[in-house]
Design brief:
This protein is an alpha+beta fold and 288 residues long. It has helices at residues 3-6, 50-58, 64-70, 84-95, 98-103, 121-126, 253-263, 275-287; strands spanning 11-14, 17-20, 39-43, 105-110, 118-119, 136-140, 146-151, 157-158, 162-172, 181-186, 189-199, 203-211, 218-221, 227-238, 248-252, 266-270. 24% of the residues lie in helices and 34% in strands. Helix 2 crosses helix 3. The model has no long low-confidence stretch (mean pLDDT 88).
Length: 288
């Protein structure tokens, strides 16, 4: 962030030295903050930095601070749209590997957006299980008569689908760690996945589960490489039944991070006519 931004901050005496008081904080100054006419929408193009946009729009690269201020950006790196290479590095640093980020579930979301199927009234009344009817809404004709049913527009999310408690016998490794993703194996074939919520040497709980979790399978930790035989398997909590899983999609952390990064492309630019006024008001607020 530009040093000129911090020159507007007051100074304090600290340890016999004069320091900039960075504990001060400001937001976009009213009435401009609530005046849509004072802003224009802008989409950050790949590899564009804040100082580059400020230079092009305000004719001054040091006005990058104004972009951060008007968009509520606190972290000028991670709150800004990351390039492909920076995004990849961010994923590796945060999750340990790309494979873990693409495997670890953030939450589950109702998938009505991707389902345009319509079912007849006969199918709804005769064949659709009662517990599934909450996922549908009626279509009416001009005379208010139901002619079919379609998926209900519902953006509900759930933090996990189910939690299973397992008894285990460790055969290799030093044990599982909380947050670790795991593969459930039948011989050498992966038949299920999950994430460790709790673990000791004889029992584990896993969440965000897919596939076959029955006893007699084995379970392998992606980070610890611990391998254990599953001796028992009990459902402790169930948000989404196996029958209703068709109405839900997992959102993985990788997809979640991509969405956040894409959202960071869309910013607003304070009209150039107000830039000097805002800078002066900022100086007065911080010095008061």
């Amino acid at each position: 962030m530009s040093e000129l931004y911090f020159k507007k901050f007051p100074t304090i005496s600290y340890s016999n030295s004069i320091c900039t008081d960075i504990t001060k904080r400001v937001v976009a100054i009213a009435p401009l903050r609530y005046a849509p006419i004072a802003y224009e929408k802008y989409t950050i193009k790949s590899e564009s930095r804040a100082d580059m946009i400020a230079s092009n729009y305000y004719d001054d690269p040091y006005y990058e601070w104004l972009l951060y201020l008007t968009n509520g950006i606190i972290d000028p790196y991670y709150d800004w749209n990351l390039s492909s290479s920076d995004f990849y590095s961010h994923i590796i640093q945060k999750y340990g590997s790309l494979s873990i980020a693409t495997k670890k579930v953030k939450y589950y979301i109702n998938n009505w957006v991707n389902d345009d199927t319509e079912i007849t009234t006969a199918a709804y009344n005769s064949y659709l299980p009662y517990d599934h009817r909450k996922y549908y809404t009626p279509n009416y004709d001009m005379g208010s008569q139901i002619i079919s049913y379609k998926r209900k527009q519902d953006d509900t999310t759930k933090n996990t689908n189910k939690i299973i408690s397992m008894g285990i016998t460790i055969t290799a490794g030093n044990g599982y760690s909380v947050g670790e993703t795991v593969d459930i194996l039948n011989v050498n074939t992966t038949v299920g996945e999950g994430e460790i919520e709790y673990a000791n040497t004889t029992n584990i709980r896993i969440k965000n589960i897919s596939g076959n979790t029955s006893a007699t399978n084995t379970i392998r930790g992606d980070n610890s490489n611990t391998l254990a035989t599953i001796t028992s398997s009990t459902v402790q909590f169930e948000n989404i039944t196996n029958a209703e899983a068709v109405y839900w999609n997992p959102v993985y952390f990788y997809d979640y991070e991509i969405e956040l990064n894409e959202q960071n492309k869309n910013i607003k630019l304070l009209n150039n006519n107000y830039a000097l006024q805002t800078a002066e008001q900022l100086r007065k607020v911080l010095k008061s």
